[in-house]
Design a protein that fits this description.
A hairpin with a 7-residue loop joins β17 and β18. The chain has 272 residues and is α+β, with helices and mostly antiparallel strands. It folds into two domains: 98 residues, Immunoglobulin-like; 99 residues, Immunoglobulins (Immunoglobulin-like), CATH 2.60.40.10.
Length: 272
């Protein structure tokens, strides 16, 4: 026969077993629901629907370049989607020429967008944009950027001159030009507004530094309050394009007065 104490122990065992069974059933059901919820998300994430364009880089920097250099660069891209990619248009920007090697790519195929640009004739920083239109729903219009900084092979001073009509030779200072990389160059041209300034130079001479002393035509200078001097330079190296440096000048009298307008109030006789 089962005693009362044994009966209580058996009841406790059954109760504990039932409790753990319920907990196991609940946890198993939650895990099954979690797996069911994750399956559609995982499947959707692993599948790339339609074409997808990806560029290795969205910016192409030519770096520091000389004036009038013919520059060539390229953007590489790929179709990482699961459908044919079509590039419907590449919108051109001013001064830049873009050319595709192909405008339709199969899944996994790669392509190249080549860019040609001629740098400025004067020192400046350039940034141009190209707009690529595709059938990629997420990237239907991409922006690519090309950059370059035009620098001269020489330094020069002054860049701005103030000339005084009452001074000898209008107080015109000498223009000093010096090679940046130590390579010789020639002065081939000196042209001022209205030919009001001239300078002596020998285009056959090559040097790494020049000092030009402009000669002022006072009568012509009186007719021009402002102007500029363009000085042409050439280099012996075949791959270096000719350059032009610019000096801006303005004329002024020796004396100035302030204020420029003077108003005098004369009282009327009625107030006297």
């Amino acid at each position: 026969m089962i005693s009362c104490g044994d009966w209580k122990i058996m009841r406790y065992k059954y109760l504990i077993i039932n409790v753990f069974s319920c907990i196991f059933i609940i946890l198993a059901g939650c895990q099954q629901q979690a797996n069911m919820a994750e399956e559609p998300t995982t499947a959707a994430e692993s599948k790339v629907a339609g074409p997808k364009i990806e560029f290795e880089s969205m910016v192409y920097d030519f770096g520091k370049v000389g004036p009038r250099e013919k520059l060539n660069g390229e953007f590489k891209f790929a179709n990482t989607g699961d459908a044919p990619l079509k590039i419907t248009e590449v919108e051109k920007c001013c001064g830049a020429v873009a050319q595709l090697d192909k405008d339709e790519l199969a899944p996994g195929e790669t392509g190249t967008l080549k860019v040609r640009y001629t740098s400025s004739s004067v020192p400046n920083k350039m940034e141009k944009r190209l707009y690529v239109n595709t059938n990629d729903k997420d990237n239907s219009r991409l922006i690519l950027t090309i950059q370059a900084e035009t620098v001269l092979h020489v330094t020069y001073e002054p860049k701005i001159m103030k000339l005084h009509l009452k001074d000898e030779n209008a107080g015109c200072p000498p223009i000093k030009i010096k090679s940046v990389d130590g390579k010789p160059f020639s002065v081939t041209n000196f042209m001022a507004t209205s030919n009001s300034l001239t300078a002596d130079f020998d285009p056959a001479v090559k040097a790494t530094e020049y000092i030009l002393q402009p000669k002022v035509d006072m009568e012509k200078l009186k007719r021009r309050s402002t102007g500029r001097i363009n000085i042409g330079l050439t280099y012996s190296e075949l791959n270096v394009q000719p350059e032009t440096i610019t000096v801006v000048f303005s004329t002024m009298s020796r004396f100035s007065h302030r204020p420029s307008n003077l108003v005098i109030n004369i009282p009327s006789r009625k107030n006297q």
